[in-house]
Amino acid sequence: MSVSRKIDKRVRPVFIKQGIILSFFWGLFGMLYIYIRYIGQTSEIRDTFPYVLPLNSSGLLLVGFSTGFLIGLFLALINVYSGHYLSKLSVWQGIIFNLAMVFVVSLFCIGSILLIALLLKGFEFTTVWSITISVILSHHLLSIFAFMLPLGALFNLAREISLRLGPNHFWKILSGSYRKPIEENRVFLFVDLASSTSIAEHLSHIRYSELIQDCFEELSLIALEFNGSIYQFVGDEAVITWSLEKDQKARNKAVKLFFAFRKALENNTCYFSEKYNVQPVFRGAVHSGMVTIAEIGVFKKEIAYHGDVLNTTARLMQISKENNNKLAMTTIVMNGLPECSKSEFLGEYVLRGKNSKVTVYLLKESSEAAPQ
Description:
Layout (H helix, E strand, L loop, with lengths): L1 H36 L4 H7 L8 H30 L4 H30 L4 H12 L2 H27 L1 H9 L6 E12 L2 H7 L2 H21 L3 E6 L2 E7 L6 H18 L1 H7 L6 E15 L5 E5 L1 H15 L4 E4 H4 L8 E7 L8 E6 L9
Helix pairs in contact: 1-3, 1-9, 3-4, 4-5, 4-6, 6-7, 9-10
């Protein structure tokens, strides 16, 4: 889809930041390899890497870090510019592809460093080439690959798990932050496909699922752009959340995300018409407040949010449905938006399951600016 590629360009800074962090870890593991394999082995280093590596420990560790960081940086760039296509692969296909990239990039980086180092020493090119080939074909390079390939597999497995759980959820589960329930002030955005029943009847089950995949692919990229965490996909509904404690503009970002998502789908009208003969439209609702967060499950763990905020937001979806699928929100969200936002006061409602009245607003499509 054309919009996906456009959005990829906007979220590349996020992937580049993640790539730099990953490159740093590759550098640390490069130092670890040098420390385990070569520190104190002066004669072996001289025989294997003649006239190239410094023989003191700090110099060796610096070479290890620099080489590992360079390998990680190249791998990150490959993921940045091919991430859209890699997302179509299965877990094992992605791991195999990335392992192949680890092998090729490591070979390229190590060979290039040797070539440049020897040329700077003043050796002739034929001599440089001969030494480089001999090092590449030696058992030392095999030991490097024996160290790097499992490391690459581990990194990529962690990446695949992170993509499936969500990066925020992955680290929270890994660190055990929510083993004991805690409270947080959060914003929730619910989006739901309008006229889903009629669309499902129009399409086959497979085609309907493909439609949802296309829509939520767009949503996932836009959520990343607006720093939102996707809590869950349930059928044709998605829930995105932000922490108000970490981002004071979270309410505004939730609103902007909703309209950016609708705009992205509108820009793909030709695509949806040709492939599905329908134009998907999503309704939405936003609310914020205190919720309880807890890690649940044993064999399948996930982070769950509990509280009245989610119940209220779910009830607001019905109001959105009854009002031409406009974005419905509560007073607390409305007060967190810029004064220029064009809202419509709808009234006070006693939502199902609640005793007190909730003031509801509808927001017109005027908040389509870039994230702030």
